[in-house]
């Protein structure tokens, strides 16, 4: 595993503990990654009469609902589940999310009709979305401001690892066997969560100052640093979140507007539409590369890209990585569009047959090394402690709405507009999101939560924030 230079050369036990805690909590993201990639190999099986466990093959419309139903349901549950984050704590929310995953695994194993799969995807979609809300918040509050960037990338690393597991195992095992493996991994990944500390900020917000201090002392390796961080918690004006007051707070609304646009932009660039239908896209290209092999290669590249982010976070600023990521995706999506346009008009031969694979690799690498790794870290950084759970939950509603739109109507768009125009539309979204980040998003690398809030409150200019 590639770790940051701080981790490699530091003997501080607090740093080691921070890494250990964040790694263990991200085991829940490993199973989420497996779930995210689940449609890619499973849809192929469900449309094959000899491989489907159902009494018949599924239709294209049913397949689109299997892919997208979870995101539709999540739009109605995010805020409600987000309230649990401040009620029972970050740790217990992650543990709670493991239960429906295990239930869904059993539903998959014994599925005999389409409605069972749609039900399972609805439940696990809500759960995965909740995981993507809680884990970034927990990790950002466990990490010191110096380590927040490196530790924040573990979300994408473990998600990518889960995707690789699904893409590597799914195509070569039966539907029932793969889902049995999925169930076992869910159980194993849930056990370490029982032994993790809760977020020190959550403990402080519940009046458990001594507990919060003890957790911080263990994580920072220094009593003085723990006391300073406890003092910074006290600067939050109100630890009991008044949501109506927040929605009237100009600083919070600025944070929320940026977070919502970033959330929408991260999905309207089309990465999930491409990844969920990965094997289907590869089959449609009619290249000599087997779709099963190509999808594994792309999954491994996604995992490699996630590791690269950990190294890049030490050398480059958040905005530089995000903008480079989006420009790379722009080129890859243009390439995909060009391939399908040429296929429709004049046909392709020779090297051009590999253009879609190269373009997909570029899209997957750039998204995973930038937008995919940093988006939830950045959104969690934008909000002050008491508002963080509420702000991230609202952002996730926009995110899941965008995922639902792109995944549910991806196949419809390709039929109505053609694949080329569809990919070019996604590339246009990359450019728009890139411009927004350049002009509107502040740089948060190495900044405390308090410094970021001072910028949104108007006490600090963007230049002062970046140079501080």
List its salient traits:
single chain, 468 residues, mainly alpha, 25 helices, 0% strand, globular, disordered N terminus
Explain this structure.
The chain is mostly helical and 468 residues long. It is built from 25 helices and no strands. The chain has helices at residues 5-9, 13-25, 27-37, 39-46, 60-88, 90-109, 114-142, 148-152, 154-169, 175-190, 200-205, 209-220, 223-234, 243-246, 250-268, 271-276, 278-285, 291-315, 318-345, 355-382, 385-408, 410-416, 419-440, 449-456, 462-467. The protein is globular, with a radius of gyration of 22 Å.
SSE layout and pairing:
Elements: H1 5-9, H2 13-25, H3 27-37, H4 39-46, H5 60-88, H6 90-109, H7 114-142, H8 148-152, H9 154-169, H10 175-190, H11 200-205, H12 209-220, H13 223-234, H14 243-246, H15 250-268, H16 271-276, H17 278-285, H18 291-315, H19 318-345, H20 355-382, H21 385-408, H22 410-416, H23 419-440, H24 449-456, H25 462-467
Helix pairs in contact: 2-7, 2-12, 3-7, 3-9, 3-10, 5-6, 5-7, 5-21, 6-7, 6-10, 7-20, 7-21, 9-18, 9-20, 12-13, 15-20, 15-21, 15-23, 17-18, 18-20, 19-20, 19-23, 20-21, 22-23
Number of helices: 25
Number of strand segments: 0
Overall geometry comes to globular
**Mean pLDDT, nearest integer?**
83
Could you tell me how far the N terminus lies from the C terminus, measured between alpha carbons in angstroms? 32 Å
């Amino acid at each position: 595993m590639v770790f940051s230079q701080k981790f490699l050369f530091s003997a501080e036990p607090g740093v080691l503990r921070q890494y250990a805690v964040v790694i263990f909590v991200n085991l829940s993201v490993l199973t989420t990654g497996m779930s995210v990639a689940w449609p890619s190999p499973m849809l192929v099986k469900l449309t094959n009469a000899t491989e489907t466990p159902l009494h018949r093959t599924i239709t294209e419309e049913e397949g689109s609902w299997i892919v997208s139903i979870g995101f539709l349901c999540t739009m109605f549950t995010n805020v409600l589940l987000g309230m649990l984050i401040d009620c029972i704590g970050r740790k217990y929310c992650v543990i709670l999310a493991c239960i429906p995953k295990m239930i869904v695994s059993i539903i998959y194993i014994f599925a005999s009709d389409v409605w069972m799969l749609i039900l399972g995807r609805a439940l696990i979609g809500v759960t995965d979305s909740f995981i993507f809300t809680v884990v970034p918040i927990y990790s950002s509050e466990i990490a010191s401001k110096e380590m927040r960037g490196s530790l924040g990338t573990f979300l994408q690393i473990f998600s990518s690892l889960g995707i690789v597991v699904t893409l590597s195992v799914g195509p070569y095992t039966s539907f029932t066997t793969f889902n049995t493996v999925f169930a076992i991994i869910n159980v194993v990944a849930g056990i370490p969560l029982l032994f993790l500390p809760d977020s020190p900020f959550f403990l402080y917000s519940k009046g458990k100052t001594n507990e919060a201090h003890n957790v911080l002392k263990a994580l920072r390796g220094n009593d003085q640093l723990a006391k300073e961080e406890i003092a910074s918690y006290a600067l939050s004006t109100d630890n009991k979140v008044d949501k109506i007051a927040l929605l009237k707070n100009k600083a919070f609304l600025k944070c929320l507007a940026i977070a919502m646009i970033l959330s929408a932009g991260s999905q309207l660039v089309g990465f999930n539409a491409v990844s969920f239908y990965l094997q289907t896209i590869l089959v449609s290209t009619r290249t000599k590369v087997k779709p099963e092999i190509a999808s594994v290669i792309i999954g491994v590249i996604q995992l490699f890209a996630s590791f690269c982010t950990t190294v890049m976070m030490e050398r480059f600023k958040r905005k530089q990585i995000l903008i480079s990521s989006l420009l790379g995706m722009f080129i890859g999506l243009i390439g995909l569009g060009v391939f399908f346009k040429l296929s429709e008009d004049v046909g392709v031969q020779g090297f051009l047959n590999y253009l879609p694979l190269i373009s997909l690799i570029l899209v997957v690498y750039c998204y995973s090394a930038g937008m995919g790794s940093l988006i939830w870290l950045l959104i969690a950084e934008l909000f002050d402690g008491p508002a963080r759970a509420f702000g991230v939950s609202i952002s996730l509603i926009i995110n899941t709405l965008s995922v639902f739109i792109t995944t549910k109507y991806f196949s419809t768009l390709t039929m109505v507009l053609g694949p080329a125009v569809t990919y070019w539309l996604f590339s246009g979204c990359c450019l728009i999101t890139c411009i927004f980040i350049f002009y509107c998003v502040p740089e948060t690398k190495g900044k405390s939560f308090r410094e970021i809030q001072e910028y949104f409150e108007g006490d600090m200019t963007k230049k002062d924030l970046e140079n501080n």
